[in-house]
Amino acid sequence: MTFSFFPDAQTPPTYANVYERSIHDPEQFWAEEAERISWMKPWSRPMDNSNPPFTKWFVGGETNACYNAVDRHVVDGHGQRAAIIHDSPVTSTQRSITYAELQKQVSKLAAALSSYGVKKGDNVLIYMPMIPEAVVAMLAVVRLGAVHSLVFGGFAARELSVRIKHAEPKVIISASCGVEPTRLIRYKPLLDQAISMSGIEPKRCIIYQRPGLPEIAAMTPGRDVSWQEAMDGDRSHDCVPVEANQAMYILYTSGTTGDPKGIQRPTGGHIVALSWVMKNIYDMKGGERWWAASDLGWVVGHSFICYGPLLAGCTTLIYEGKPVGTPDAGQFFRVIQDHGIQGFSTAPTALRAIRREDPELELGRKYDTSSLRYVFLAGEHCDYETRNWAEDKIKVPVLDHWWQTESGHPITSTCVGLGHSLSPPRDASGVPVPGYNVKVLNADKVEAERGTLGRIVIKLPLPPGTMSTLYRADDRFSSIYFKDYPGYYDTMDAGVMDADGQLYVMSRDDDVINVAGHRLSTSALEEALLEHPCISEAAVVGVPDEMKGELPLGLYVTTKANTKPEEEINKEAVRLVRELVGPVAAFRLVSAVATLPKTRSGKIARKSIADLARNKRVVIPPTIEDPSVYGGIKKALQGLGYALNAPDPE
């Protein structure tokens, strides 16, 4: 088996040149970028767009994601470089794994999976906490040319069973438990219940017994094997070549019910795109240390905890903890100091949580974070107040960028590696990343004037690394994403593009409310509320009104240090929105709440608030971190004259 690798010998050109080439000659552009990864067999065509939107990249080429993420670096002499650092304040443990050690562990697990019958194209489901073994499992699966479906470890049995039933995994890899700040989550009973509910019996379940914790997983004879047993002996397995368009993983979108929506990611395009992103957006080089503070169960975890940094030869950090409460709001800064983190990505919600607990960063300032070059934000729109606070306190550029589970990597960003200014315009989500021909369309489905709010779409073909289809649902893939705007991918987000090409992603398009004929973005109203010094978090939703059709309703959480009465804050908040957005917003419905409903990835569940206000039945999404908050939300809505006949969320 022969591997080839073509090193980069060119100085990166300007963003404008790179972007222009990627749009006008995508085949040549991506063919050159693909030479930076290792191929076992060259492709016959860079792109096949004969059946849009099912575009294929690097047709006929064969590669392996695990080889590019692990083995290649060992071959190149970097085996003793740290590949993974695990920092777990909830278990008071830290450990480091080199690339050579990672290669050995992955190869052993791949051999075990092969002995259990897993082969190229088979599905393996992974249900694990934030531990290195989860990454080992991901890499072992793709080493065999199989397909992993990693399920967020916080999901209950019903949600897990839906994914098991749809993916029909040959093997499931799990752990005895996960650790939250105040409790253990017993994974194995949840897994057993989910398997029973799904009606799908895997051939094997590999269970990792977490050391030093009291939870001991009960094993099912004949089906369950321990991780230690699977890894016993000196077995190993080589990387299996796969065609570039074969699925690498299936990632089910959060809250999947009914017909599951499994994003299917192609192998070749994904590793080419992630390699490009690590260099050109994040400006990360081999041997440097990167931390994406997310969960492996989300797309950020797949792309930028596991594959992206390892493809770049970086050290990736896996953090098992929270931004606050494990044990305090200084932990992010302690991690940056302890491990010399140079590139960091997190969600705006994490920064807001830290700001609320430690507004002057008294805890964070105890640590030396001089290694850090910048902070990237993703997951939801970052308000200016939070970004400005973070830059002032952390003393590095804080850069918002925007992407989706479907895209797999950023759609718009400040491209640090291409020399972009580290002081982008206020509220901007960046410029279109090379490969993405981003447009904003108006209600007539023609390109909107610059500076005008509209639907964000991307002209086909999509670049490498984006989803290739929905698993077992080609028709749904076409109808959901491409039917309403022929020739374009529909992001379902709303935004504005300015004269310089900066994109301002405002909200999901269904979060745009219509007040007396005026279309207003709820995120713009939230940002105005967050200008108030006593408000740390805010959510704005549209509620029905006989006169104006809809009115904005705002709920907010005060800062910890606040002593001002709610009535006074409410009056000031209304005045602030009038000043910053205008009287056209007709903003007068506002109330304080103890906390807002948020998913474990940090997103505020605005739709559930809006549905509750409209007296609709609300089924609490399984991703909500604290379902008990809805009692306070309902009470606040009723105080404003809404949710009066709403059933209690369940």
From TrEMBL:
It catalyses: butanoate + ATP + CoA = butanoyl-CoA + AMP + diphosphate; propanoate + ATP + CoA = propanoyl-CoA + AMP + diphosphate; acetate + ATP + CoA = acetyl-CoA + AMP + diphosphate. GO terms for cellular component: mitochondrial matrix. Residues 525-603 form the AMP-binding enzyme C-terminal domain. GO terms for molecular function: acetate-CoA ligase activity; propionate-CoA ligase activity. Residues 15-69 form the Acetyl-coenzyme A synthetase N-terminal domain. It is an enzyme of class 6 (ligase). It comes from the Eukaryota. Its EC number is 6.2.1.1, 6.2.1.17. Residues 74-461 form the AMP-dependent synthetase/ligase domain. Belongs to the ATP-dependent AMP-binding enzyme family. PANTHER family: ACYL-COA SYNTHETASE, ACYL-COA SYNTHETASE SHORT-CHAIN FAMILY MEMBER 3, MITOCHONDRIAL. This is Acyl-CoA synthetase short-chain family member 3, mitochondrial. It comes from Daphnia pulex. The lineage of its organism: Eukaryota, Metazoa, Ecdysozoa, Arthropoda, Crustacea.
